[in-house]
Structure formats: structure tokens, C-alpha cells
Write a structure and sequence with these properties.
The protein has 475 residues and is an alpha+beta fold. It is built from eleven helices and five strands; from the N terminus they run H-H-H-H-H-E-E-E-E-E-H-H-H-H-H-H. It folds into three domains: 230 residues, no CATH class; 83 residues, no CATH class; 107 residues. The chain is 64% helix and 14% strand. Helix 1 runs antiparallel to helix 2. The protein starts with a helix and ends in a 7-residue tail after the last helix. 21% of the residues are buried.
Length: 475
């Protein structure tokens, strides 16, 4: 049996590694095409770009591994069935369940690894990736000068150069024009025949060394004061905020940046909040009914007077025996509105907290349902591979793509329904595994009993009988 286990698992290793590499590459290429333009426009270092993609590899692997299990199962069992090795194993007295046992065991190990990975590695990687993405978004683009085009991305400065030669960290320019509006009381225009522009990483300033030029300065408060200065060498330093990437740190974590334990702790705290709000609602209603319910039960004037006196609506001594219905009505309407507003506020908090709990519980179930899909994909992939009787990547990829669309559509749709409280988080995240797993079990039992999934002969006979019509009694 161990020889059989090693042989079957060996058939799966190659397709699994190959499929995992291909699926990971597809996700990475999608991420590259989506983010590369932003990275290039902001002049990020190569190490930061590598770090960003490395941090995003966590969620890619969490999705790619179950997909790779399905592709590997289809390819391996398709190849074994196509070469009649499955038939030879059955002829030797080995059942289909014993043939699938090593693959189910390996998929269970993959599921256990993913459960650990989703709770210990993925949250931290998602957290760091989010912080890095926000830091990149805050970073200003690098100085991107173009000959003959006015550069206006610097606050209070406009720069125009007519000739430009760039190196790695310095731009050599000719025929430079600079408009300086940093001083609100004056405006300066700088002309220079040549110069160099570079960014100092220590002081985080943009430095300009200009040669052979002149400065025209105009006082905006006293327009008659105009100055012109000639210079052989002039240095200009400009503060550029966020030109360099500053790494931030935050203790706040989103729902996808927490482990299952953190999520359950937050759900527990939210349940306490919900119970406190419900208690407030009960107290509001109790105090309200204790105050006004006796009014509805009073049958004589004396009891009604006592109730009105206790509620602050007692009549004066001169008009005792007469009830101010208008005043009482206004008082009741005011208190009714106040009660309604308080109840609406408490119910709104409860609904918002319950919806937040649904979102958190969806993430909790997702951390376990996606790993369990490794086992589910083996249950559905093995019989489908035997039926296909081909172990090519095209056949396995085509069948896998259909199941991926079905499975992920059910997950995404279920998540939306659970977030909007149309279904429970458990059903939202597990219904795909239940349905696909049930279909896989049915196919396995059909294969074990040597039955046909779709009996074409029986269907043909049924249509033939219907076409011939009912038999006449005289025939």
C-alpha cells in the first residue's frame, strides 16, 4: 500500500507545482499591470517594489493552493485513467476509495497548513501590505522634468528647462527659467544659462545649482521697488514634502488583517454591546409603561388625578376636577417622540453592530472554508479526471476553470448576502463546499458501484417510447 501511495502522490506532485506556479503567475501579472504605472510614476526603489509584491504573495498563495489541488487531481487521475492504470488497480481488488486515500490525506495536510497560514501569516502580511500601499499613495512623484514643458508639481515654484540631460541622481539643465512665489510679499523670476538639479536624501530638499544667470525680484506691496541681480553661481534649496517614502506604523487592523481568535474576540465584545443596548431598550419601555399604563387602567377621576400628579401634569387647586386635555396631549406627544428617537438610536446601533458581526464571522468562516476546499476539490476532481480519461493541462484547466467560476461566484455572492444580513455567515461560506462536496461524493459512489453518471441508453429508450406513442389495445 505504501508503494501505491508513493506512486499516486508522485503523480500529483508535478502537476501541483506546475499549476501553482501558473496560477500564482497569473495573479502576479494582474497585480503588476494594475500597480506598475503607479510605482513607476512615484520613483520607488526596486527593493520597495519587491517587498510590495512579496507581501501580496500571502493572499495569492492562500487562493492558488486550493486551485492547484483541483488541477493536479484532474491531471493525475486523468492520466492514470487514460493509461488504464485505474482499471488495473480495480482488477487487482483495490477500490476507488483506497486509490483516492493518499490524495485525500495529502489534501487534508494542505488544508491544515492553510488554516495555520490564514491565522498566523496572512493577517500580518495583509496588514503590512496595506500600510505600505498607503505610504506609497502619500509619496509625491519624483521630479520629472521635460524640455520645453513647465513643471508645476512643486508648491510655489514653476520650472522650465529647454535642454536636459539626466543621470541616475542628477539632472543637468540648460536655459533654465524658475518662477519663485514662496514669499507672499514678493515674486522672483530666475534665469540661468545652465545648472544641475538633484535631491539630497539627508536634508530631503531639492537643490538647484545655477550658473551664469540673473534674478528679477518684484515687491508686491511696493511695486516701485524692483531689483535685478546678476550671479555667476546661485544655490536654491526647496523643501519637498513626501518626496521620500516614510514608513508608517499603525495598530489598527481591518477584518482581513486579523486572525480567527482576534475576530472572535471582537465579535464577543460586539455581543456585549448589543446586550447593553437591548437592556437600555427594555429599561426605556419599562419606565414608559410604568408611567402611562395606569392612565389607561384608571376608571375614576381620583385615580387619574394621582397619575397626573405623579407624572408632573397635576392640575392647579382652582381647576381641580378638570383635566387639561390639550396640555396632556402635547406632553404625551412630546414624550412619544422622545421615546421613538431613543428607541431608533438604540436599534440603529444594534443593527450596525450585528452587521459588523456578520462581516467578522464571514472572515472567520472564510479562513476555514477555503482550506477545506482542498479536500472538496479532491472529491470532485478524482472522479471527473477518471471520466475525462485525459491528463492534459488543457482538459484539466478547462474543467478547473468552470469549477473555479462556480465556486468563487458562490463565495463572493454568499459574502455579499451575509454582509447585508440576507443569510448566515456559515451558509455563505460553506454552501459552496457542501454542494461541490456532495456532487463529488455522488460521483465517487457512482464510480465505486460502476454506475454511469448519465445513462444515455436509458434516456434514448425513454425518448423512443414517447415518440412511438402509447400502444393500442388491439395491437
Amino acid at each position: 500500500m505504501f508503494i501505491l501511495w508513493r506512486y499516486i502522490l508522485k503523480e500529483h506532485v508535478g502537476p501541483f507545482v506546475f499549476a501553482n506556479c501558473v496560477i500564482t503567475l497569473v495573479f502576479l501579472l494582474n497585480l503588476v499591470f494594475r500597480e506598475l504605472s503607479r510605482f513607476l510614476s512615484r520613483g520607488l526603489e526596486f527593493t520597495l517594489i519587491v517587498e510590495f509584491f512579496f507581501l501580496n504573495m500571502a493572499w495569492i498563495l492562500a487562493l492558488a493552493i486550493p486551485m492547484s489541488v483541483l488541477v493536479a487531481t484532474l491531471m493525475a487521475f486523468g492520466r492514470l485513467s487514460g493509461d488504464n492504470e485505474i482499471t488495473a488497480m480495480k482488477a487487482s481488488g483495490i477500490s476507488i476509495l483506497r486509490i483516492m486515500a493518499p490524495v485525500i490525506f495529502a489534501s487534508a495536510l494542505c488544508a491544515a497548513f492553510l488554516v495555520w497560514f490564514n491565522n498566523n501569516v496572512l493577517p500580518d502580511f495583509n496588514h503590512r501590505a496595506r500600510l505600505l500601499a498607503s505610504d506609497i499613495a502619500r509619496k509625491r512623484p519624483t521630479l520629472n522634468l521635460e524640455p520645453g514643458v513647465i513643471y508645476q508639481d512643486l508648491t510655489n515654484y514653476n520650472i522650465l528647462v529647454m535642454d536636459l540631460e539626466e543621470t541616475i541622481d542628477t539632472s543637468y539643465v540648460k536655459d533654465v527659467f524658475i518662477e519663485d512665489n514662496s514669499d507672499p510679499n514678493s515674486s522672483s523670476i530666475i534665469f540661468a544659462e545652465r545648472g544641475k538639479i538633484y535631491i539630497d536624501p539627508v536634508s530631503e530638499k531639492l537643490n538647484m545649482l545655477l550658473y551664469d544667470g540673473e534674478i528679477h525680484e518684484l515687491n508686491l506691496e511696493e511695486m516701485e521697488k524692483y531689483r535685478k541681480l546678476d550671479f555667476g553661481k546661485h544655490r536654491l534649496s526647496i523643501d519637498v514634502d513626501d518626496m521620500f517614502l516614510r514608513r508608517s506604523h499603525s495598530e489598527y487592523r481591518g477584518d482581513r488583517e486579523k486572525s480567527a481568535k482576534m475576530l472572535l474576540d471582537e465579535v464577543h465584545e460586539n455581543n456585549k454591546t448589543i446586550e447593553e443596548r437591548r437592556m437600555r431598550i427594555r429599561n426605556l419601555l419599562d419606565s414608559y409603561f410604568q408611567k402611562y399604563l395606569p392612565v389607561l387602567q384608571s376608571e375614576n377621576t381620583e385615580e387619574l388625578k394621582k397619575v397626573l400628579e405623579s407624572s408632573g401634569n397635576a392640575v392647579s387647586s382652582k381647576t381641580r376636577g378638570k383635566i387639561r386635555l390639550q396640555s396632556l396631549r402635547q406632553s404625551l406627544v412630546t414624550e412619544h417622540k422622545s421615546l421613538k428617537q431613543n428607541l431608533d438610536a438604540e436599534l440603529s446601533v444594534i443593527r450596525r453592530t450585528e452587521r459588523g458581526n456578520n462581516v467578522l464571522m464571514v472572515e472567520v468562516h472564510k479562513k476555514y472554508s477555503i482550506p477545506v476546499s482542498c479536500i472538496v476539490f479532491v472529491l470532485i476532481g478524482a472522479p471527473l479526471g477518471m471520466m475525462a480519461r485525459k491528463g492534459s493541462m488543457a482538459v484539466a484547466g478547462g474543467i478547473s476553470f468552470g469549477f473555479f467560476l462556480l465556486y468563487w461566484a458562490m463565495l463572493i455572492g454568499g459574502e455579499e448576502l451575509a454582509d447585508n444580513q440576507y443569510t448566515t455567515p456559515f451558509m455563505a461560506m460553506w454552501v459552496a463546499n457542501i454542494l461541490v462536496g456532495a456532487a463529488g461524493v455522488y460521483l465517487i459512489l457512482s464510480s465505486a458501484r460502476k454506475t454511469v453518471f448519465i445513462n444515455r441508453t436509458a434516456i434514448g429508450q425513454l425518448f423512443a417510447k414517447k415518440k412511438a406513442g402509447p400502444l393500442r389495445p388491439d395491437k
